[in-house]
Specification:
Family: Belongs to the class I-like SAM-binding methyltransferase superfamily. RsmB/NOP family.
Low-confidence stretches: none
Number of strands: 13
Largest sheet: 9 strands, mixed
Number of helices: 20
Radius of gyration: 24 Å
Helix content: 40-55%
EC number: 2.1.1.176
Keywords: Cytoplasm, Methyltransferase, RNA-binding, rRNA processing, S-adenosyl-L-methionine, Transferase
Mean pLDDT: 95
Strand content: 15-25%
Main location: cytoplasm
Bound molecules: S-adenosylmethionine
GO biological process, one term: methylation
Length: about 450
């Protein structure tokens, strides 16, 4: 017999807790192996992401009901309690009785009678007891940390960079579901025509607010539609769509995308060029290069050539490209809605380490830009050490580049007036419910 949704959720969460494995890869794997239907698949994702997303709050609820330090519990028992409490607090459609019953059954199967008795006692105790109040936590940062489940060190960084109010708004936004947004392949169709076709295929969708190429999927299995299979659209977050707008490649140009997999922005660049010119897409990992090739094929974009290469070693491409994109590897603190495990997997040391890699990639990529050409640097993090500070250091060391203030003409007006600061754009998740992103353009002086 296959695993139930909750057993599968327990397996995935224990692996993540023990190995810091990435949730989306494990989830994909588990969905396939367990043979779950669409509804159960959605419930599995919701339980796994929700439990990771709310970890500190769930532990805050659990601690008074457990006599010892939570860390002393077996990992699987702690995770089982967390995922059960998550369902009881946040999922209205699951009856509490069923949650307790299934948790006790899993505990019996995995452990001994004592453990199933303890799980039963804790969950029934939780049903009966009044929930502890966040108001009782004296320290304001700790309170925000527990209430919104973000690590204290990260909150301290954000508060020093954005202030209390923006940080609180960001934390609250991070707990909400991420919208499903798609980018229209403008070499094949228009946004209006695509919306009509999707309606015919039973998908509820509407035009996106931020960009003219975006649509938001409200309901329906969009990846199974003919429209998707025919390459009329690509899944992409709306903030991420602005990167190609900032780079604005024209048909016939030579373009280099240095950190390209899985190809979301590469394909956008080729679409903007109406599939005329050339786009060289590089990525460090050979297995990821295949993903770029698959997307280029699905979207019928023949000008893309994808290769495995470490962008820090770009030495033979001197001043060859009109446009160069560095969509740098980063901590991902702008995408916590989609990848909540990042909150727990990354540390302050990772920020420093990745900033060094970003600076090295940027320096190597810059040598490839033609005179008067454009270099765009973007990340999906909101940490200034990976963004503004990287760019400021680059400009100091490279006086032949300057911030391109005309970026404001290429980006949506409302976001420019709100968030563009000295040629550098930071979109926060609470602005448009899209990902937190940083985008800036540098011009090589002629
Ligand atoms: C933010 S992701 C890129 C997302 C991609 N631009 C898109 O829109 O689909 C960063 C990518 O950089 C790649 N990467 C990391 N270090 C690299 C390096 N030294 N050279 C080239 N690519 C690198 C990672 O494998 C990852 O795929």
């Amino acid at each position: 017999m296959g695993k139930t949704v909750r057993e599968a959720a327990l397996d995935v969460l224990v692996k993540i807790e023990k190995n810091q494995a990435y949730s989306h890869l494990l989830l994909n794997d588990t969905r396939k192996k367990a043979g779950l239907d669409r509804r159960d698949s959605a419930l599995l994702t919701e339980i796994v992401y929700g439990t990771i997303q709310r970890k500190l709050t769930l532990d805050f609820y659990l601690q008074p009901l457990i006599k010892k330090d939570l860390k002393k519990l077996d990992t699987w028992v702690l995770v089982l309690l967390r995922l059960s409490i998550y369902q009881m607090v946040y999922l209205d459609r699951v009856p509490e009785r069923a949650v307790v019953h299934e948790a006790v059954t899993i505990a019996k199967y995995n452990g001994h009678k004592g453990i199933s008795g303890m799980v039963n006692g804790v969950l029934r105790g939780f049903q009966r007891a009044e929930r502890p109040s966040f108001e009782d936590i004296q320290d304001p940062i700790e309170r925000l940390s527990i209430e919104t489940s973000h690590p204290v060190w990260l909150l301290k960084r954000w508060i020093s960079q954005y202030g209390q109010e923006e940080t609180r708004a960001m934390c609250i936004e991070n707990l909400l579901p991420a919208p499903v947004s798609m980018r229209v392949n403008q070499t094949k169709t228009t946004r209006d025509d695509l919306l009509l076709q999707l309606e015919k295929e039973g998908i509820e969708a509407k035009p996106a607010e931020l960009t003219s190429e975006g649509i938001i999927i409200e309901k329906g299995p969009v990846f199974e539609t003919e429209a998707y299979l025919q390459g009329l659209m690509t899944a992409q977050d709306e903030s991420s769509m602005m990167v190609a707008l900032a780079l604005s490649p024209e048909p016939g140009m030579d373009v280099l995308d240095t950190c390209a997999a899985p190809g979301g922005k590469t394909t956008h660049l080729a679409e903007q060029m109406n599939n005329q010119g050339s786009v060289l897409a590089l990525d460090l990992h050979p297995q990821k290069v295949k993903l770029i090739q698959q997307q280029a094929k699905r979207l019928s974009l023949s000008i893309i050539k994808a290769e495995a290469m470490d962008a820090r070693k770009l030495v033979d491409h001197k001043e060859l490209y009109d446009r160069v994109l560095v969509d740098a590897p980063c901590t991902g603190f702008g995408v916590l809605k989609r990848k909540p495990d990042i909150k727990w997997a990354k540390s302050e040391r990772d920020v420093t380490q990745i900033a060094t890699i970003q600076a090295d990639i940027l320096a190597a990529a810059s040598t490839c830009v033609k005179k008067d050409g454009l270099l765009v640097y973007s990340t999906c993090t909101v940490d200034k050490a990976e963004n503004e500070e990287t760019i400021q250091a680059f400009i100091q060391n490279n006086p032949d580049f300057s911030l391109d203030e005309t970026i404001s003409e290429r980006l949506p007006k409302h976001i420019v007036s709100k968030r563009l600061n000295q040629g550098m754009l930071t979109v926060l998740p609470q602005d448009y419910q899209s990902d937190g992103f940083f985008i800036t353009a540098l011009r090589r002086n002629s």
